Amino acid sequence: MAEKYLAPSVTKAFQILSLIADSERGLGISQLSKRLGISKSTVHGISAVLEEIGAISRNPHTKRYKLGYTIFELGKRGLSRIPLREVARRHMERLMEETGETVFLGTPNNLHILILDVVESNKEIKITSPSGTRIPLSAGATGKVLLAYMDEEKVHQYLTTKGLVRYTENTVTDLDRYLCEIQAVREKGFAIDREEYLQGVRAVAAPINTEGPLLAAIWVVGFSSSLTDEKIEQVIRSTLHTADAISRELKGKIEG
Fold it and tell me: If both were cysteines, with which of 141, 171, 177, 233 could 191 make a disulfide (CB 3.0 to 4.6 Å apart)?
């Protein structure tokens, strides 16, 4: 078997980009060096190259780095070429019309959920977030759905290592209970978030079966005042129907 090729500089570059992406205020050389456990000179050298190609930019006053426009442009171009996004779009638009709420499409990305597309509600006041946004992997209904269909050993390792963050007073932080809820998702095919990730916000999520390595989910999000217990039942049916329609169309394209 061929030896696995390792490129330390490339790995470190992506680690730097990931840390900067997760920081709201940006990070300096010393902070990056400390968090990564590598020398300042190494961080400086890699950062200089990343800055030169526009992957990061440095504030001349704070000396902190933030993501550059090159990363955003690459991300935008990449998202536009994902077949799943193309297939799902019109189904998402129909689901938004049926429910009156914002509809999201996303997939796991390392320890986060990457939002691939969003169809905003027509309401004046609504829940929204742009494509390319990352949210925690354990966030609400979407997290339960994606974790339910990932490798069980990896899921257990993730949950025991990272722990369950309490986002609101309704967040499930007991590991055994959370694992039971994930099992329920496997049996029912959907998950509900009753103000577990954002206070005053509810959601319904369902998996998209791509029958391949790509795992994805679609979810409907709205304020609790709108997504009442009665309405959620209808939203569940519509979300499941939409997820199934996307799955079937995607399967047809793959086989075709």
Answer: 141
The domains of the chain are located at 8-73, 82-255
Q: Are 100 and 226 in contact (CB under 8 A)?
A: yes
Beta-carbon contacts of 109 under 8 Å, excluding residues fewer than 6 positions away, are 134
98, two tokens: 């049926």
Query: For residue 91, what are its two tokens?
Result: 């189904």
CATH topology of domain 82-255: Beta-Lactamase (3.30.450)
Tell me which CATH code domain 8-73 carries.
Answer: 1.10.10.10
The number of beta carbons lying within 10 Å of the beta carbon of residue 3 is 5
pLDDT digits (tens, 9 = 90+) for 50-92: 888 888 888 888 889 988 767 656 665 554 445 788 889 999 9
Q: pTM score, two decimals?
A: 0.70
